[in-house]
Every structure is written in structure tokens, then in C-alpha cells.
């Protein structure tokens, strides 16, 4: 069983503040669980910090002071082979750095290196169980093009679009503009690997398109421009579980001030509540047939991707034709989509416990398989020396 839960959040991402809110919500949900919670706050510059004040939302009003008072730390392996979080600040001659045991990591990053598989890879390196999807699913899920390729392979439709890199834009802007303008009179410009609607713009016409693209390149070196779905209804569905035991939540219809839900719509409604403060209709006011189709598509994508824990799938629905299109997957959704599970009979504390249980079970299953091959290959090769290895497979 587990007792020491490390909550990892923050990171070098435009979604840094959103991650802090999700982490505070998770900590609040687990406060009466009897578990020992340990924060791992990754600053915007990439420093690892810990300390009890990092679990208090009020502390983040003054980041400079917070970073000066928190303890720098890093993962290490102790003398017994266990992974621990260890203080790295230099103490006195006879002082011993503090260390904290880690049984499981609750990953609360959003965007960039925290959600794209990089931090998950660090957990794998230290053989730590962690919540959410693994390295591959996290990486594919963060990349909008890769996720859409996967969706198409599953028979789930996506909106027609064109993706390109900044150097392609610089080298052939006029030709690329012609192709983009030919997509539709109204298009959506998206950074390839960001969430929370950051850098996303709906535009019509040449000059607005150019401005949106230039803005998009401030956040990402790759962009995706898609035809706008009109009249548009956004519908989201979350999936919880691992493999065959995954289940879909009720569907929601987010409500924004504009045609597409903005960052302000999602997070600025009530400070400290994250996605929970966004305006939404639950369950989504759509037909039973469409609800079932979106839930089944979400489950299929979740399993095909190899996702785990909780993920949210966002769809675009043409309100006239009723056709729906896969938009993106959030492998660590804002506020862990607890508002969807609450409506599906799972409370926020229960959701957090389920995520931790899934993480530990997946880790146990992985460690039950062969992870190394016992051989004397290196000692045999060493007899021949480096010269003897040349040209050998």
C-alpha cells in the first residue's frame, strides 16, 4: 500500500498557474485521507522545490519570496535502493540533508515538459509509480497532429487542417497563406503542443490570419490551422481507468463568451477554482445517440492510445448536421475533470484515490515483468577489447 504521496506541479509552461490550482485542489481533496502529502513545485525556470508552504495557495501571491524560502530538492536513490526526495541545499559541516520517502507521485502538470511525457520519463527512470498516462501516451496526446493521426486510425473523424513549422512559414509564407486561405473563409489557428486555449484564435481574412500565426509562433514552433466548424457546439467527455476497466463520464458542453472557449472562459471566472469555475452545462444538451457515440469514441481513443488515470476528450460538433470531430485529448485535464466525475457519481476525494490506486497497480504490473536480461555479455566483450568490437552487431 502507499502512504507518502508526492504532488508534482508547476513547470516551465504557459499553463504554470493552472497547474498550481489543480495541485491545490488535489491536496484539498486528499487532506482527510490520512495520507502524507509532499509537494514538488517546479518553478518556471525549472528548479525543484519542496516545503509545507507550497501546499498553500496564498503562498503563490509572492513567487520571489516563495522560491527563496522553499527547499531546493531532487530525486535520489537511498542506501536501500528506494527513491526519495532529498534536500539539495548545502548545510553546515555536520548537518545531514533532509530526505522524504515517495510511494507514489500525483502528477498535476499542464502543458509542456510536465504533461508531454518528460516528467513521466523521470518517474520511470527512478521506478516511481505515477498517476496519469505513460510516456508514449502523454507525448502523443500533447501533440495535436499525432493525436489526430491516431484518431483517424481509430475511425474517429477530425477537422481538415494544415500543420507547419516556423521555418516553413518564413521560407514560403505567400504559398502557405494561399493554402491556408483555401481551407475555409474562417479558420482556427492553434499552437501544436499547448492546452488551455492559449494561443488559439478564430480568424477570417488574410491579415488577421497572419497576425494569429505570428502570435502562435510566440508559444510554439509548430502550428495547426483548421477549418472552423460552424455552427459550433463543444462537447467534452472524460475517461477514467486503465485498459479494459475504463469508463466514460457524462458529457459536458462548455459555455464561452466567444465561439471557442478561451483561457479566460476556462480559468478566470473564480480564482482558485481552475476549470471548476468555467461555465458549462452538465449533462450536455445533446441527443442520447450523440452522447453514446462521443462516449464510445472517447473510450476507443483512450484505450488505443494506452492512456491511464483520467483524461478528457474534447470534440467539436456541427450543430446543424450533428457530425462530431475529435479535437484533442488532455492527458492531465484541468482540475482533473472532477466536475464531470462528480456528476457521474464519483466525488473528488474518490477520484484522487482512484488515480493513486491505478498508478500503484500499473507500477506493480510493470515491475512484475522482465525488466533486465541477466547476461555476462560485457565481461565477454571486455576480453576482446574495443578493437574486437569494431564491425560487430
CATH superfamily of the largest domain: ATP-grasp fold, B domain
Low-confidence stretches: none
The secondary-structure element order is: EHEEHEEEEHHHHEHHEEHEEEHEHEEHHH
Share of residues in strands:
15-25%
CATH topology of the largest domain: D-amino Acid Aminotransferase, Chain A, domain 1
What would you call the structural class? alpha+beta
Shape: globular
Named CATH architecture of the largest domain = 2-Layer Sandwich
Number of domains: 3
- Mean pLDDT, all residues: 91
Give the termini distance in whole angstroms: 44 Å
Biggest sheet record: 7 strands, mixed
Order of strands in the sheet with the most strands? Answer: 6-5-4-3-2-1-7
**For this structure, what is the CATH class of the largest domain?**
Alpha Beta
The radius of gyration is 23 Å
**Helical proportion, percent range:** 25-40%
Number of strands: 16
Note the total helix count: 14
Subcellular location: Cytoplasm
Main location: cytoplasm
Function: Cell wall formation.
Family: Belongs to the D-alanine--D-alanine ligase family.
SSE layout:
Blueprint: E1 4-10, H1 16-29, E2 36-42, E3 48-50, H2 63-69, E4 71-77, E5 83-87, E6 99-101, E7 104-107, H3 112-115, H4 118-125, H5 135-142, H6 144-153, E8 161-165, H7 166-171, H8 173-183, E9 186-191, E10 201-204, H9 206-216, E11 222-227, E12 232-242, E13 247-254, H10 263-267, E14 280-281, H11 288-305, E15 308-318, E16 324-330, H12 338-342, H13 348-367, H14 377-384
Parallel strand pairs: 1-2, 1-7
Antiparallel strand pairs: 2-3, 3-4, 4-5, 5-6, 8-11, 9-10, 9-11, 12-13, 12-15, 13-14, 15-16
